[in-house]
Write a structure and sequence with these properties.
The chain is of the alpha+beta class. The protein has nine helices and eleven strands. The protein has helices at residues 22-29, 44-57, 62-72, 80-98, 133-138, 217-230, 272-279, 303-311, 322-334; strands at 125-126, 151-159, 162-170, 179-186, 191-199, 201-203, 206-209, 247-252, 267-271, 292-293, 337-344. The strands form two sheets. The chain has an eight-stranded mixed beta sheet, with helices on both faces.
Length: 356
């Protein structure tokens, strides 16, 4: 005896100019008319026959059906490419959510999962490289200008008076990237936040991350500590924030690759200080090693809390210099990590001035 689950996501509704005639479609299919009542997946050939019959009966649907076919025909990424593409899209969604900008446009990304086109297919208003805010304001970052090896794409998003630039940068093709960093910098306040993505492993019934088995973890934690120390200078007295740390980890639940989703990946956000506190807990007898999971971490920031605090400027260190942000982007790409960098010049606060 076997069972299976089917998941149907309804994203858009299209008005039809007329009713679809079941009997006429059945007549077109002739001996294959039973396919219309078949409960299960069809072969490619039989599925094409059904779609062709529907398109002939109602030509207004033909373009929509072809568009859906192109989406489901995309080759899915495998291995590291899957995790990296999911994390990069999630980082984009985090930034858009934090600044009250719609995520609908993300449904159109990617139109290809080919490594050479992944960044270029990101939706949004393209920004010419000569207008690159990072390059103009931060000076020369190796690889970002002068024809270097770092591939980057810029998109502009807006809602009312709020404006956000999102930069996507990588120095390696998707399959060979070692991870993803989300970097946010507010030019007006000098507010700086860095999030490193990590994936929970499924071990039995629990989702667990094992720091001791990640060869990069110690180096990354040290880097975060250095960033937090560097951001403690030149902070104005009226800059109030809830969490002093500028650096966070996002530990992500395993999710399947879904080309059309705009959902945020479930998981927990922990500040660097919180992670270090968890690492100091004594190991219990029989425990394999230090671990981070939901059972041992009863308090954490979820997507709703994190994006709300980020958008209103309650987290992140104030006073970060332009040079520090540029240095961290360079460091991330040099270590083989992809970077999703959000840059804005808004006054941070709870008010949604200019929001639609």
């Amino acid at each position: 005896m076997s069972s299976y689950e089917r998941r149907i996501e309804i994203e858009e509704f299209y008005p039809l100019p007329d009713l679809v005639s079941f009997s006429r479609i059945s007549a077109q299919l002739k001996s294959d008319a039973a396919l219309l009542r078949f409960d299960g997946p069809l072969t490619t050939g039989l599925g094409s026959r059904v779609i062709s019959a529907i398109s002939q009966e109602l030509p207004a649907l033909a373009g929509i059906l072809q568009q859906l076919l192109r989406k489901v025909a995309l080759p899915l990424p495998t291995g590291n490419a899957t995790e990296n593409s999911i994390s990069q899209r999630d980082a984009s969604n985090v930034l858009l959510t934090a600044f009250s900008m719609g995520r609908d446009i993300i449904r159109e990304w990617p139109s290809s999962v080919d490594s050479d086109r992944f960044y270029r297919d990101i939706p949004g208003e393209a920004v010419p490289h000569e207008d690159d805010l990072i390059r103009n304001d931060m000076g020369y970052v190796p690889g970002w200008s002068h024809g270097g090896s770092i591939d980057y794409t810029i998109r502009r998003y807006g809602r009312g008076e709020r404006k956000l630039l999102i930069y996507y940068a990588n120095a390696r093709e998707l399959e060979r990237q070692t991870g993803v960093d989300l970097i946010y910098w507010n030019k007006f306040h000098g507010s700086f936040v860095l999030v490193q993505y990590k994936k929970f492993n499924s071990s039995g019934e629990e989702l667990t991350y094992w720091p001791d088995s990640d060869k990069n973890f110690g180096r990354e934690l040290s880097r975060m500590r250095t960033i937090d120390d560097a951001c403690k200078t030149n902070v104005r007295h009226d800059d109030i924030h809830l969490i002093q740390s500028a650096t966070f980890f996002k530990f992500c639940d395993p999710v399947p690759f879904d080309p059309g989703t705009q959902d945020l990946v479930p998981g927990m956000y922990l500040s660097r200080e919180h992670v270090e506190a968890l690492m100091e807990v004594d190991l219990q007898p029989g425990q394999k090693g230090r671990r981070i999971d939901y059972r041992s971490t009863p308090r954490y920031l979820n997507n709703t809390l994190f994006t709300g605090l980020l958008g209103d400027g309650w987290i992140g260190t104030r006073g970060a210099a332009t040079e520090l942000v540029a240095q961290q982007i360079e460091t991330s790409t040099r270590q083989g990590r992809a970077v999703v960098a959000g840059v804005s010049s808004d006054r941070l606060g709870n008010s949604r001035v200019g929001s639609a």
